[in-house]
Specification:
The complex is a heterodimer.
Chain A (H helix, E strand, L loop, with lengths): L1 H41 L1 E2 L7 E2 L3 H8 L1 H33 L5 H13 L2 H11 L6 H8 L11 H29 L3 H9 L4 H12 L1 H16 L3 H6 L11 H10 L4 H29 L4
Antiparallel strand pairs in A: 1-2
Chain B lengths: L1 H27 L21 H9 L2 H32 L5 H13 L2 H14 L6 H5 L6 H12 L3 H9 L4 H12 L1 H17 L2 H6 L8 H11 L4 H33 L3
The chains are: A mainly alpha, B mainly alpha.
Main location (chain B): membrane
Organism (chain B): Acrocarpospora corrugata
Family (chain B): Belongs to the binding-protein-dependent transport system permease family.
Chain lengths: 296, 268
């Protein structure tokens, strides 16, 4: 009797294992082990060739004191400060315009979404060519109207704006689709009720549309900030962090520390610093959302 | 009047969205000499496929396209399988420590690839797997995001469905395969689309782990092409066209579904 009970339990445990192990083993091997390895490496000095040397928290202390680290975070913040308002304002404007019934709306929506499914490498290459200082079409068009186009990604002052432009172009459709879905979820009765109370135009927008859209806005801001802090592909292809380090963002710095300078320990430490920053920023937003996000 | 005024910025914007794609195609058809002349010295009659021919000579391009395709399919299929099975366990199979284990799954979601890429490279190097298909595929065999997404979908399936099957004598594997999976097809499709696009476009991990052209995927191949042909933009744009066409065709077929699933993610 007890034996059959035990064998039933054993069979059940086997079933659970059968369902879980195909994901648990790869997650353990390719996520948890590297996480632990990364923490461990961050406490060592290691050039990837000679044996590791324990340095405790030295990598972190050193990084925090390094001008290059501050510059990398500064460039990343510069990217976010340019990219987020651009992509949000653009996406919001488009969502408002497309929210009303309009012929060909679905086609337009699909067009705006095209860059979202394209790879960052392709988008970065396209824009590198469009913004080519000498023979790119953008500067040639500017020349037609008598303007002398800048050096774009070859000019330290214009490298980051070039990256921001390409990134905003790629993600505009994503933001628009999220906000448009948020707008369409607002019941028309709310606006009608506001109209009865005399709120139209901007007033209705401020007191009805914007608050009711706040969950979608919150989602866009959280995702964009996370992606913004992790920006890499387009930077690596368009400028490689240059010219003269003008667009050296944090992940580019992690890459260079590992594969150019052979400082695996410092690279791991820097990636953890980035992770902590992203975590803190996200937590602050989740706390702050109570004040402004309306889940009516 | 309002309608026309509204249409103008939207149409202008659509033009801005389409123009870079169009210009990429035009550039890819431009003969070498005409490329750098200012103003552009190019008439439609001069169109040539030279850039495409040179592209094929410069690198094993079809092999690279094939790599991207099978890697994307394999990683999508593997993720669908491993994630839906784990999701079934978390939704339907009670066991001690289930919530704690689910929390561990969710925690892995928060760690970005950027943190993992260096140690994962070192791990692969330690077992001599750098520059192999396996290493390329490894981080995408399982997906905590998929487990999370599909668990939600399974939780919404009424239990009566499983119970009816169990009464008929079905074990968990059969309930999973013949009752649950057909009922969560929309969620599976959403996840499959995202998985495929993510794999097709992935750049950082292949960049770190792959050295030989024969194991490269398209984004990596394109970037290295750009390193080789720094000024020959017609060749680089030809590569871009070939790489972007399959994903755009796929997108156009699944367009409504893709947009609907993205739209939903913001509503939660």
């Amino acid at each position: 009797m007890t034996r059959t009970k035990a064998s039933i339990r054993l069979r059940y445990a086997g079933t659970v294992a059968l369902f879980l192990l195909p994901s648990a083993i790869p997650l353990a091997l390719f996520t948890l082990v590297p996480m632990a390895g990364s923490l461990w490496t961050s406490l060592h000095e290691w050039n990837l060739i000679t044996p590791m040397r324990w340095v405790g928290l030295d990598n972190y202390v050193e990084l925090l004191g390094e001008e290059r680290t501050r510059a990398a975070f500064g460039h990343t913040l510069y990217f976010i400060a340019g990219y987020l308002p651009l992509v949000y304002a653009g996406g919001f404007g488009l969502a408002l315009l497309l929210n009303r019934a309009m012929r060909g709306r679905n086609v337009l929506r699909a067009i705006y979404f095209l860059p979202v499914v394209s790879s960052w490498v392709v988008v970065a290459l396209m824009w590198k060519w469009l913004l080519n200082p000498a023979s790119g079409i953008v500067n040639q068009l500017l020349a037609l109207v008598g303007l002398d186009g800048p050096g774009w990604w070859t000019d330290p002052d214009w490298a980051m704006p070039s990256i921001i432009l390409a990134s905003a172009w790629k993600d505009l459709g994503f933001v628009m689709v999220i906000l448009l879905a948020g707008l369409q979820a607002i019941p028309q009765e709310y606006r009608d009720a506001a109209k009865v109370d005399g709120a139209t135009g901007f007033k209705s927008f401020r007191h009805i549309t914007f608050p009711l859209l706040s969950p979608a806005t919150f989602f866009v801001v959280v995702i964009s900030l996370i992606n913004g802090f992790q920006v890499f592909d387009q930077v690596h292809v368009m400028t490689g962090g240059g010219p003269a380090g003008a667009s050296q963002v944090v992940v580019e710095q992690v890459y260079d520390l590992t594969f150019r300078y052979g400082r695996a320990g410092a690279a791991s430490a820097l990636s953890w610093l980035l992770f902590v920053v992203i975590l803190l920023v996200t937590l602050v937003q989740i706390r702050a959302q109570r004040r402004w996000v309306n889940y009516g | 009047m309002g309608k026309v005024l509204r249409a103008i910025p939207v149409l202008l914007g659509a033009l801005v969205m389409l123009f870079p794609f169009a210009w990429t195609v035009v550039t890819s058809l431009t003969p070498d000499g005409a490329l750098l002349s200012i103003p552009p010295d190019f008439a439609p009659g001069d169109a040539s496929l030279d850039a495409y021919r040179r592209l094929l000579e410069a690198m094993p391009f079809w092999r690279i396209v094939l790599n991207s395709a099978w890697i994307a399919v394999a990683s999508t299929v593997l993720q669908l399988l491993t994630s839906s099975m784990a999701a079934y366990a978390f939704a339907r199979l009670p066991f001690p420590g289930r919530n704690a284990l689910f929390a561990v799954y969710l925690a892995t979601l928060m760690v970005p690839m950027q943190v993992l890429v260096v140690p994962l490279f070192l791990e692969m190097r330690a077992v001599n797997l750098v520059d192999t298909y396996f290493a390329l595929l490894a981080p995408t065999i399982a997906s905590a995001f998929g487990v999370f997404l599909l668990r939600q979908a399974i939780a919404q399936v009424p239990r009566e469905f499983d119970e009816a099957a169990v009464l008929d004598g079905a074990g968990h594997l059969r309930v999973f395969a013949f009752v649950i999976v057909p009922l969560i097809r929309p969620a599976l499709a959403t996840f499959a689309i995202f998985g495929f696009i993510a794999s097709w476009n992935s750049y950082l991990w292949p960049l770190v782990i792959i050295r030989s052209p024969e194991f490269m995927t398209i984004p990596l191949g394109l970037a290295s092409l750009h390193g080789e042909f720094t000024t020959e933009w017609n060749v680089v744009m030809a590569g871009s066209v070939v790489s972007v066409v399959p994903i755009l065709v796929l997108y156009l077929f699944a367009q409504k579904h893709v947009i609907a699933s993205v739209a939903q993610s913001g509503l939660k």
